[in-house]
């Protein structure tokens, strides 16, 4: 019997059935590129002689990586993409101040269960939290999608993580996925669909599930997935009028590998330099920090800002430590403003910036210098990821980030 991924890809390829290992051509429901990867896609699209995109209503282009433009080069990239949007009649274009692509797509109703979604960004797997098959592709592959509306795939096998146990106070979805990545290793799910299931996942919000799927790529996953339930449907129907189809995995599938993980005793987890799978419990980590970054497509959502604000309220960021808060989207920013969260951050001494990727990619807004140490709620801590290759990046949840900002070193929330 088929897995969730096999069912979605069978539908997309017009076949009754596909199996892990099959090579297929699948129709694409949504194609996304942004200001950083988009220019190469556009240039490649023109180089192959294509004149018109296959479906302007199925392409989404947000500006998020270097916004507002921080150099002449990035400004030129923006101009190129705006001209492409205008020429092609792209319906879903989000200019500066809209937010991070992986937050915008579900917020704006572009993601529904059963879709095949490709993005010229490795963390496109985020959208599997809504029951879609979502994966990152290269910019040149995206050019072919723009032209033809389809792409070849090798149908992946599936690692299904059956997660049980009630999370302790101040332990979050970020801790769960860091724990799994530490257990599996950076190549532990290479080219496999990573499904997250079990009672712990059922209790999580859609935002929490996005955290898990977002980081599936950090253990080599082709995509991250959560089977749709009533929470998924409520989220989707509030934001989208697109038709959708719910698929679930048959547990007797021959390509399915079930991995049981109990998180009942889990403490906050920290990914230490310079690899995401270098994970330790926070009780084993004690280091001073220069910067705290709260944001990104992993943990820049409203729930993350709320978690951090509870801890920061009435406190101050430690002297000698700076804190940067970047909401993941304009919607998140606006709601945080209405709730008074941004005032809490500002009063604590943090710098609140407009929605964008920020220092996550090491190219814009708040990068670190040589010898500096960053504690980040983002998804990667590779050498040079947030600026200088002589700096160090640790990864944590939003709550740990807030508590650590107050202390000036990595600590667990009380």
UniProtKB/TrEMBL annotation:
EC numbers, comma separated: 4.2.1.33
Alphabetized Pfam families for the sequence: Aconitase
Binding note for cofactor: Binds 1 [4Fe-4S] cluster per subunit.
Pathway(s) per entry: Amino-acid biosynthesis; L-leucine biosynthesis; L-leucine from 3-methyl-2-oxobutanoate: step 2/4
GO terms, molecular function: 3-isopropylmalate dehydratase activity; 4 iron, 4 sulfur cluster binding; metal ion binding
Domain named Aconitase/3-isopropylmalate dehydratase large subunit alpha/beta/alpha: residues: 7-285, 286-408
CDD domains: IPMI (cd01583)
Reaction equations catalysed: (2R,3S)-3-isopropylmalate = (2S)-2-isopropylmalate
Matches recorded under InterPro entries: Acnase/IPM_dHydase_lsu_aba_1/3, Acoase/IPM_deHydtase_lsu_aba, Aconitase_4Fe-4S_BS, Aconitase_4Fe-4S_dom, HAcnase/IPMdehydase_lsu_prok, Homoacnase/IPMdehydase_lsu, IPM_dehydratase_rel_enz, IPMI_cat
GO biological process: L-leucine biosynthetic process
Superkingdom, natural source: Archaea
Keyword tags: 4Fe-4S, Amino-acid biosynthesis, Branched-chain amino acid biosynthesis, Iron, Iron-sulfur, Leucine biosynthesis, Lyase, Metal-binding
Essential cofactor(s): [4Fe-4S] cluster
Binding site for [4Fe-4S] cluster: 297, 357, 360
Quaternary structure and partners: Heterodimer of LeuC and LeuD.
Family: Belongs to the aconitase/IPM isomerase family. LeuC type 2 subfamily.
Function text: Catalyzes the isomerization between 2-isopropylmalate and 3-isopropylmalate, via the formation of 2-isopropylmaleate.
Listed NCBIfam families: hacA_fam, HacA_Meth, IPMI_arch, PRK00402.1
The protein's name in its UniProt record: 3-isopropylmalate dehydratase large subunit
């Amino acid at each position: 019997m088929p897995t969730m991924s096999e069912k979605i890809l069978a539908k997309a390829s017009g076949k009754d059935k596909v199996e892990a290992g099959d090579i297929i051509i699948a129709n694409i429901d949504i194609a996304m590129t942004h200001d950083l990867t988009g220019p190469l896609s556009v240039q490649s699209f023109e180089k192959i002689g294509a004149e018109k995109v296959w479906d302007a209503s199925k392409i989404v282009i947000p500006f998020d990586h270097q916004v507002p433009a921080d150099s002449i080069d990035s400004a030129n990239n923006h101009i190129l993409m705006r001209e492409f949007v205008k020429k092609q009649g792209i319906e879903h274009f989000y200019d500066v101040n809209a937010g991070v692509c992986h937050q915008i797509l579900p917020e704006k109703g572009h993601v529904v269960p059963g879709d095949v979604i490709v993005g010229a960004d490795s963390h496109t797997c985020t959208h599997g939290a809504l029951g879609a098959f979502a994966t990152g592709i290269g910019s040149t592959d995206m050019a072919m999608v723009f032209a033809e509306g389809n792409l070849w795939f090798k149908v992946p096998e599936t690692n299904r993580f059956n997660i049980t146990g009630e999370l302790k106070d101040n332990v979050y979805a970020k801790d769960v996925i860091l724990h799994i990545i530490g257990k599996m290793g950076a190549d532990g799910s290479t080219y496999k669909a990573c499904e997250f299931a079990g009672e712990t996942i059922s209790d999580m919000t859609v935002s929490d599930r996005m955290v898990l799927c977002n980081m599936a790529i950090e253990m080599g996953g082709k995509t991250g997935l959560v089977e749709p339930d009533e929470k998924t449907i409520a989220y989707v129907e509030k934001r989208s009028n697109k038709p959708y189809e719910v698929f679930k995995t048959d547990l007797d599938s021959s390509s399915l590998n079930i991995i049981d993980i109990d998180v009942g005793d889990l403490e906050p987890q920290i990914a230490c330099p310079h690899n995401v799978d270098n994970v330790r419990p926070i009780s084993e980590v004690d280091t001073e920090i220069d910067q705290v970054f709260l944001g990104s497509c992993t943990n820049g959502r409203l729930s993350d800002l709320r978690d951090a604000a509870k801890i920061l309220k009435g406190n101050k960021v430690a002297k000698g430590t700076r804190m940067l808060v970047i909401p993941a989207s304009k919607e998140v920013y606006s709601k945080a403003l209405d709730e008074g969260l941004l005032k809490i951050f500002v009063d604590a001494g943090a710098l609140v910036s407009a929605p964008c990727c920020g220092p996550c990619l090491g190219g814009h807004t708040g990068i670190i210098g040589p010898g500096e140490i960053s504690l980040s709620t983002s998804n990667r801590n590779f050498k040079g990821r947030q600026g200088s290759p002589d700096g160090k990046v640790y990864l944590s949840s939003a709550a740990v980030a807030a508590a650590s900002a107050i202390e000036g070193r990595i600590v667990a929330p009380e």
